[in-house]
Design goal:
The chain is α+β, with helices and mostly antiparallel strands. Among the domains are: about 240 residues, no CATH class; about 60 residues; about 160 residues, Beta Barrel (OB fold (Dihydrolipoamide Acetyltransferase, E2P)), CATH 2.40.50. Strands 3-6-9-11-10 form a 5-stranded mixed beta barrel. α5 runs antiparallel to α6 and α8 packs parallel to α11. The radius of gyration is 38 Å and the shape is extended.
């Protein structure tokens, strides 16, 4: 072993000597395409000698440590086999198709209501976390601010015109400003979120803790103003809460009673009450804090106190949405968390085990595991073949600027996208355009085609786009234009035994049809409600198809249909025989029950919006609402079905009203109706 090292050292010395001799002769040791360096041959021989020496060294190492050699060979073989196996699996499993089908299956099951449920909750919790982080940072930097203020006061004794406190104060305002932005998101999303998924009692105690923490971080220079403002704020909130007391406490309820209301414009109203007077004095204290030290108190005293003010106001809001049992449960839970943590951990573990067993018995856990496996397999194969991708490095690159900035950036993007959607959403508008079907047929119907041609008629009728109309016509028929079922498409790619198992796991089994009297008509069962009638009719249809069905189970409950409804315009009690005047209405899946129970020739009243290829044959319009006018027996109330369109603007107005009342009540209250 020693002679191998000696040979390497000698070779290195020889190389250095050759390079030095070449430099002394004035020749640059760089090889070009058309010139040969004199020492290149020696360098090549030196390189070969070094490689030979390293090979000999590794050979002797292998003889000296055979176990390590075997382990290295095993690791290389396992690595090579895993790479080959992954490539073999990637060629067998259609990862691209599975990815596409899983993606479309997830997208097809997402709805606007799901987004409306999920986005406000996500916004609320992310903004609440941002508020907590900013408050902790403000508390940490409060000591630095006190030390810097003392140093600045000492420096001003020697240099009275020195103003370094303002620059440091503005730099310390960053976290307070982030906090105020987070408060806006919390207050705006709280009325939109589902309160059943917000633990108001638990969050109320957390808000109380951060209120005390933010009050402790205030500077002592404005302690008198802050103490008075805090007392006035607490007194105003307690007076406002007295209105929630029972009727027996009449004397205490007078503290929060409104004596008079003065309208201010059309959007706000001034309430005259004791909390209102206290709030006016509170604003005076805010102004007094801001004008200290030549209005440098704005960023030294007022803005830090606003952090405490917002926490206290939010505590009152959460307290109004809490229950007494919830508060007691929260106090007991925090007591157990502090003094009986091992017992609490064992209790939580036992509850978790019981819940897991319950999920397993209900096959919910099996569905979760199967779904997770189906989604993870193609993703795992994709990431395994690309070893350069590191999820941790991506997360570090995203969060290197801090979690608060990342949270606020995501919330701002979501807010802008949602505002654009809300602005373009129609809501529950009335389709009562003055344009009649007769006028449309005259301008854009067959008579106009004969006089001016179809092309000119289409160009002219494009001016009618945007009309929201409600017309009456004769129902001619309905057909299924499109069917979407991502689960069925994914199951069809799997082997038969696995597909049958998943079909029964996720789907439904065909009903037992023994002893069922199929001859009974649903039209005679008037004493049964609509949901039972729908279920009985569906079971009868499944019994008809069960003898010829290929599988024991089905996943048809995941089907989403797109219908095409043909409506004809009646004139003078008789319908036009020319089918060119018919209109095709595109109906979504929610119109299924009503459309399946309509008879051909029934008179219907429908609402739609004119858009698309107007003036052509069989124009296709989106169906917004349909009402059967002469149906004898309807399985739906009044025979009417309206396309489900949430009134987004009304929800946003409710959120704006809540935010306005949060910041200005009890002094001012929003007046507009929601």
């Amino acid at each position: 072993m020693m002679w191998c090292n000696y040979v390497c050292v000698c070779v290195s010395v020889c190389v250095c000597v050759c390079v030095c001799e070449t430099l002394q002769k004035g020749v640059c040791p760089v090889s070009h395409k058309k010139s040969v360096w004199p020492g290149s041959q020696m360098m090549l021989e030196t390189k070969r000698s070094m490689n030979r020496a390293l090979d000999i060294k590794s050979y002797f190492l292998g003889l000296q440590y055979p176990l390590h050699l075997i382990l290295d060979v095993k690791e290389h073989l396992v690595d090579w086999a895993s790479r080959a196996g992954v490539q073999w699996l990637s060629t067998i499993i259609p990862t691209q198709h599975v990815n596409a089908l899983v993606f479309f299956f997830i997208i097809s099951n997402l709805s606007v209501d799901l987004f409306f449920f999920f986005i406000p909750l996500l916004t609320f919790y992310l903004a609440f976390i941002s508020m907590a982080i900013c408050t902790l940072r403000v508390f940490r930097s409060s000591k630095c601010w006190q030390n810097f203020s003392a140093l600045a006061a000492l420096l001003r004794r020697f240099e009275p015109e020195l103003d370094v406190e303002s620059h440091f104060g503005w730099s310390q305002l960053e976290q307070q400003l982030y906090f105020l932005v987070s408060v806006c998101f919390v207050i705006f999303s709280f009325p939109l979120a589902d309160k059943r998924w917000i633990p108001c009692s638990e969050l109320c105690t957390v808000a109380m803790f951060f209120t005390a923490l933010s009050y402790a971080s205030l500077t002592p220079a404005a302690a008198s103003y802050a103490r008075r403002a805090f007392i006035i704020e607490v007194a105003s909130s307690l007076c406002a809460l007295t209105t929630r007391l029972p009727e027996a406490f009449k004397t205490l309820r007078l503290l929060g009673q409104t004596f008079e209301t003065v309208p201010i414009g059309e959007l706000a109203v001034l309430t005259i009450s004791l909390p209102c007077l206290l709030y006016l004095y509170l604003f005076y204290l805010f102004f007094s804090m801001a004008r200290m030290h030549g209005f440098r108190g704005t960023y030294c005293f007022l803005v830090p106190y606003l952090v405490c003010f917002m926490w206290l106001e939010f505590t009152v809001v959460l307290l109004q949405n809490s229950t007494l049992i919830g508060l007691i449960r929260t106090c007991v839970a925090y007591f157990l968390f502090l003094f009986a943590l091992p017992v609490l951990a064992l209790g939580l573990a036992a509850m978790l085990m019981i819940q897991m067993v319950k999920w397993f018995l209900e096959l919910e856990l099996t569905k979760m595991l199967v779904t997770l496996a189906v989604c993870v397999v193609p993703v795992t194969l994709r990431l395994w073949t690309r070893f350069s991708l590191s999820i941790l490095s991506v997360l570090r690159s995203i969060t290197h600027r801090g979690p608060v900035k990342l949270i606020l950036l995501c919330l701002c993007c979501v807010f802008l996208v949602c505002m654009g959607y809300v602005y373009s959403a129609e809501g529950l508008k009335v389709y009562n355009s003055t344009l009649t079907w007769e006028q449309y047929s005259t301008v854009c119907g067959p008579s106009a085609w004969k006089q001016h041609g179809i092309t000119r008629t289409q160009i002219l009728c494009s001016h009618l786009e945007g009309h929201r109309v409600t017309w009456s016509g004769r129902f001619q028929g309905v057909r299924v234009a499109e069917t979407e079922n991502g689960a069925q498409s994914l199951i069809n790619l799997l082997p038969v035994f696995m597909g049958d198992w998943l079909r029964c796991l996720y789907g439904d089994e065909y009903p037992s049809c023994e002893g069922r009297n199929v001859s009974n008509s649903l039209q005679e069962q008037t004493s049964v409600n609509a949901s039972v009638l729908f279920q009985q009719r569906e079971e009868e249809e499944l019994c008809r198809i069960k003898p010829v069905a290929k599988h024991r189970c089905h996943v048809k409950r995941f089907d989403k249909y797109r219908f095409e409804v043909t409506v004809r315009h009646p004139v003078g009690g008789a319908e036009i025989e020319d089918t060119d005047s018919d209109i095709i209405l595109l109906a979504s899946h929610e119109f299924k029950q009503l459309l399946l129970n309509l008879d051909e020739g029934s008179m219907v009243e429908f609402s739609t919006k004119l858009e698309g290829k107007l003036g052509s044959k069989l124009p296709r319009l989106e169906l917004k609402a349909i009402h059967c006018l002469n149906c004898r027996l309807s399985l739906l109330p009044e025979g009417r079905q309206v396309k489900i369109e949430r009134n987004w603007r009304k929800s946003v107005q409710a959120a704006i009203k809540f935010a306005f009342d949060f910041f200005f009540s009890p002094l001012l209250s929003a007046r507009f109706k929601v």
